[in-house]
Amino acid sequence: MKNPTLPRLLLPLILLASAGAARASDDSIVAAVRAADDERVAATLAPEAGRLDAIFSDDLLYTHSTGKLDTKKSYVATLLSKATVYTVYDYKERTFFVATPDIVIEKAHVLITSGTVEKQNPPNDLMIQAVWRKESGKWRFLSWQSARLPAPTPAPATK
User: Fold this and answer.
1) Using one digit for the tens of pLDDT, what is the confidence trace for 114-133?
2) Residue 95: partners with Cβ closer than 8 Å, 6 or more residues away
């Protein structure tokens, strides 16, 4: 007669091994998306049509901290025409969550300086959530939503 306890003892080991494999897979996915995000930032700072087309999904929805919504077409047009010029992207924190092997959610705290060619605005202190989707084997930027953080409250004056 077979030992009925053996499968129960092996199951945790099998689950542990598969969890380790999933974690290694997640690490490689995160590394790939982090590299794609670095390319997105570089392409935003120095916009070129081909570069932007390659990184942004055709389904891009880009919600600015002002509430303005851009599609890929309108956002790329804004960057290429220099109606908006980004000069600084300074991540204070950036994490990635692998939702599925083809969807990654990025959460970040970032200081972004942008404006026009003539005048840059003070940095925007933003919390963002972005979504990356694997399309035809390549990570593409699908969605961005940002919220401006309030300025720090000054400490009360001491007497």
Assistant:
1) 999 999 999 999 999 999 99
2) 106, 107, 108
What are the structure tokens assigned to 155, written together? 């400490």
Residues sharing a CB contact under 8 Å with residue 113, sequence separation 6 or more, in sequence order: 86, 87, 88, 120, 121, 122, 123, 124
Calpha distance 62→98 (Å, rounded) = 20
Which amino acid makes up residue 23? R
Spatial separation of the C-alpha atoms in residues 43 and 52, rounded to whole Å: 6
| pTM for this predicted structure | 0.80
What is the distance between the alpha carbons of residues 50 and 57, in angstroms, rounded to a whole number? Answer: 13
Backbone dihedral angles phi then psi of residue 19, each to the nearest 5 degrees: -65, -40
